[in-house]
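Hey, can you fold this one?
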Amino acid sequence: MDFLVGEWLYNRFPEMEEGELTQMRSALVQTNQLAAFNKQFDMEKAIRLGKGEVKSGGNFRNTLLCDVFEAFIGALFLDKGMEDVKSFVYPLLEEAAVEIIENHKNEDSKSKLQEWAQANGYVPPKYSTTSVNGPDHAKVFEVSVKINNEILGSGTAKSKQSAEKIAAQNALNQINHEK
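Sure. Predicted structure:
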């Protein structure tokens, strides 16, 4: 998906700068977006899971939905070839890109925090998992972000990546509040 999305973006938005293209690519291939593509086709109905996983809502977990969508794209490629994959995926990307641009979903808080740190002569942000709670099927991660050994923000979410993004956004909010 990274390659396919990268190619599509390069051809679709030739005027975009490299950094903007990277942010768009990241937004289009992130777990939540690929899970949303999955949901458009009700692919979760085709997932076969054990009783315990079904009971805990596994067939609605974004990481699993993302994996299933990517597996489907791989199977489509093997069965039909790249042109059919492009015919299937490009309209999805077009629709998603419009929403991403309109709602500024390509503005990643972790990237923004790193840019701020570099622009101000600081070392890159360092993310640390401060706690992991809950059973294996429903873990909750708490992450803090430090710059120059000072905690600037923390975040809690069901995935480590999401908790890092929340921590970065909270750090940016703190930085903007102090101005």
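Strands lie at 126-133, 140-147, 150-157. Let me know if you want another pass with a different chain boundary.
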